[in-house]
TrEMBL record:
The keyword Ubl conjugation belongs to this UniProt entry's keyword annotation: no
Short name of any one Pfam family annotated for the protein: GntR
Source taxon at top rank: Bacteria
Keyword Nucleus annotated: no
SMART domains named among the record's database cross-references: FCD, HTH_GNTR
Keywords: DNA-binding, Transcription, Transcription regulation
Organism: Sneathiella marina
Protein name, as recorded: GntR family transcriptional regulator
HTH gntR-type domain: residues covered: 5-72
Family matches, as PANTHER family: GLUCONATE OPERON TRANSCRIPTIONAL REPRESSOR (PTHR43537:SF24), TRANSCRIPTIONAL REGULATOR, GNTR FAMILY (PTHR43537)
Amino acid sequence: MVKKQSLTDKAYSAIKAEIIAGHISPNNFIDLPQIEEQLGMSRTPIREAMLRLQTEKIVEIMPKQGIRILPFSVKELDEFHQIISSLELQAVGNICRRHLTRTDIMPVLYALSSMENAVKARDTAAWAEANETFHRGLFILNGNSKLMETGLGYRDVIQRALTLAFSHLPMAAKERSLRNHNQLKEVILAGDEVSARNIFLEHCDWIGNQLHTVLAEREITSL
């Protein structure tokens, strides 16, 4: 039983990583024989992994048809973004109350440095990856393991769609996002919870509006 569970976990992590990275496009069907060959596993742990992914609304198991990667509507992405932003707001408050040092938040500082390099290089993909690392870092540093687990789980669900949405943002918006993140970092280090919450809320509202506008202009309804 232990071996079976570990295989399921391995299959779950591997398949989820492929989907999040955008290697399997939405609305496409997963090639189970190919997955079995790639992972060197039987179909049982892979199907169990698919059941978990269906629970997370990442895939849809369609009888007699296959397993389809679920796309996100823009409305769904906005709804998930609101949920995650609310959770991250609490994480920001928790971090401020922990009075962390620059050494403590080094992963976040590295993410900001990567975002800056990506902006200079006009590298959209690198920027999106660094941005994701920054936001995940807020959950990791917040000190509440349940909040971290829930927040990271939600980010997993929308990461692929969010990365695609970010690819449509102009570089000027990415530059402003970097400035906002740096401002947040400074007030977090100062332990100023009120300012941190205000900066974070303003940023979330702004980035949400930016995404909504750019996707509407391009008549994109699903990701």
